[in-house]
Write a structure and sequence with these properties.
By secondary structure, this protein is of the alpha/beta class. It folds into 2 domains: about 190 residues, Rossmann fold, CATH 3.40.50; about 190 residues, 3-Layer(aba) Sandwich (Rossmann fold), CATH 3.40.50. It is built from 14 helices and 14 strands. Helix 8 runs parallel beside helix 12. The C terminus is likely disordered.
Amino acid sequence: MSVDPLKVAVYGLSTEGYKIASHISNKGIPVSIIDDSSGMAITLKPDIAKTYSSVTSFIQDETLLDFEPFDVAINNASYIFFTPRIRKSWPDAKNHIGSKFQDVIKHVNKDSSIIYTVPAGFGVNNENITLIEHRTGLSVGKNIFYHYMPISSIPSALFDAIIGTKSELDSNLTSLLSGLDSSNRIKVVDIESAEYLYSIRILRHYGLMSPIFEICKFADNTYQSQIMENESYDEMYIDDLVGGLFDLNTILSSLTGISPLTLLVKGNIAAVENYLKHLTEQIKIILKKYELKASKTKAIISWTFDPNEMRGDRLDIISRLESRLKDYVGDVERHDSLFDFYSSEKKIIVVSCSKDDFDRLNKNNPNSEIIIIKATPILGQSNIQA
């Protein structure tokens, strides 16, 4: 069965998936975006894409839109973008992604193209290709096509978008992607090179950041903290540290044995866990310093992030941070926007987990009695307002 060359399906009601779907819809091309939690496809017309600027607003009115079974949407599409919402932690995430991917390839047709946007470790794409050929009986690169286009969690104008492929990009796909990336630059390479380049990008990012978080833990007095602050190390937050955690785990899961690369990736992952432990220990010290009783203190985690992003690492880490804080403070709340500073008679400690959160809190804080802790490498007395 031949497919309609002008129809697109996007599997995954994630922020990344909606961005792709709305971009293509605005070109006047029929698009179906698939809610991977319900298994239903939603027709995304240009007027709808323009009405709903974000996936959050789109989801709120989702019941008012046109639906069709997701297998029909995939069956009719010639271009299928794989952009699932991943809410499992490693190692469960790997099986979760694999299960969703198999749901997609069961319904693809001859001459269709699959664009896999989930960051993958070494060899994962070749495993996907083997699976496609086994399940469909088609040959990738001849009568069905596969492209690897990892969507980065690290915004940077320094990097081109990467597409790995076993064949050349056809003109229709090139047109679909045109204008999607802000730099409008796409580097087309082979599958393996795409995996290497993307992994280098992630490790380069953490190579600059992880040592700062690790070393700054040793700054144990105000003078040392001020020196570190002058180096702008207080501009990095736990939000930045967590941003590529999924990518590190997918790289690690593709490695076997012990090698310098394995140790390097494990070290960067450990930096996240180490900082989480360090942050909660410092809060314990602050409670003791200000002689705050657990029963008369409220801890608020201020962390604004996109709940619909493809990766679920921030959601996982905030849950773990909340659990750790409850060992020292019985009353712990999460807030991802401005909140009522006068809503509690308890002493309030706010843990600000991103630069945007801190700037907003600092600007709108009407209560000088609130303690604001910056979740940066040099959190300490110089980063507390009391």
